[in-house]
Amino acid sequence: MIIKVVLLVVLAIICGIVSLVAFILFLTNLKEPSKRNTWLIVFSITFVVALTLGIYLVVKAVTKTVQKAVEVGQVIEEKARNFDSDLAKIWIDDRSYLLESSNQNKEVLFLKSLEPDSFKGKVPSGFYTSFGFRDWYRCPLVYPYSMHCVDGMNYGQLSDDRDVTEFTMSYEGRELQLYDITGFTFDKNIMLIKKVKSRDLYGDAVNEVYEFVVFHFADEQEEKFDTEEALFKRAKALDFKGDDKLMAIREYDALF
Prior knowledge:
Blueprint: H1 2-28, H2 33-91, E1 92-94, H3 106-113, H4 126-129, E2 130-133, E3 136-140, E4 145-150, E5 157-160, E6 174-175, E7 181-186, E8 190-202, E9 205-216, E10 222-225, H5 228-237, H6 249-253
Antiparallel strand pairs: 1-2, 2-3, 3-4, 4-5, 5-6, 7-8, 8-9, 9-10
């Protein structure tokens, strides 16, 4: 291919030189019709050939350059895409090791034991092993519920993940109107929650007022109380079998 291009360039140069010489001879023989016409024909032919070859070579060079630029652009784009993908994987908190048969996590085993009968054998493994992405955190609870946090684990929001099949960087869980959760505990049937009811801001100081909620997993009904004592009194009446104290979200995450 390179040899062909070189030959065409040489031929174009030769034709250009011959065309120039013929044009000069044409001008010097204007008064002699026979010689003038001969050199005009030579000039016309060589000029057309040189011009055609020149245009062809320029177009070929531009096409090749554009093609090369496109190929380089595609390589760069592919590398950037792979880089973004690899970078994203760094931020994914995937704890698949929690399900390793040789050493299954105790908290995961406990959560599995609490699965409603209607969901037995249908829970995606990612529900128990996906713990968020970058500054978004997630902790599994009794299926299909999970706790979500953003920018730290101080406050959480309850989510219903029954329609989620892929738990990776993002998903579409149904967020419930139970947010600003700071403490909780649960058994198979209910979840006891401490959440922020209101905040009063005074400069840098934050005064939080809390409320306490009994959340029923079966029908998502809520019972609200003003004190933790009243919360646990109601839990006892409901034959609650979970812990007798509330746990911070960060403490719960440390169990996995």
